[in-house]
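Structure ticket #2291
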Amino acid sequence: MGTRNMTFVVLGGDIKVAQYCQWDGYPTGQGATILEFFESNPDMKTFAKHLVNAIQPTPEQIRAWYVEAGDDADNDTGFIGMDVADKFKEAHPSLDRDMGAGVLQYLLETPIPNLYRDLDFIENKLFCEWAYCVDLDNNVLEVYSSWDIPSQTEDEGRFGDYPLVAKYPLDALPSKDDFAELENSGE
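Resolution: structure written out below.
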């Protein structure tokens, strides 16, 4: 389902990952992907090393990669064909709208990852329905939602008036069933 969302990773006080995703922003979707990643007991030293090595390509570099994937160099419409999108996604999966919380596994497996940080999308509460922030400095997972969900924490969130609805220690994450209850808590 087209439930737009964000996955963030914070390290050294900086947002290193701000990954937009077009799909399945619910706790049972992208949220479950995050839980599964941490359930797999990932090597967090390797993860952090790869995160530090990440490259943020410029818009010009990204445009050049679209041209390499078959887009017309003079295309300034912002629209591309599915054939170009598929080739681009295959070559640069972390820059695609489908990556979502899968970016965590990608970071673990990719020594020098390309990451596009979309820091503006979280400001649009109409379109960004869920956000997940893995804060490695404080060892917590923060969950944000633009839905009318009662907060389970007294803490203020890091994204201005975007509501922080839950916060969990990374070493004591909830079960998928308990996590899924966030979806229903606003009903």
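Closing remark: The chain has a mean pLDDT of 93.
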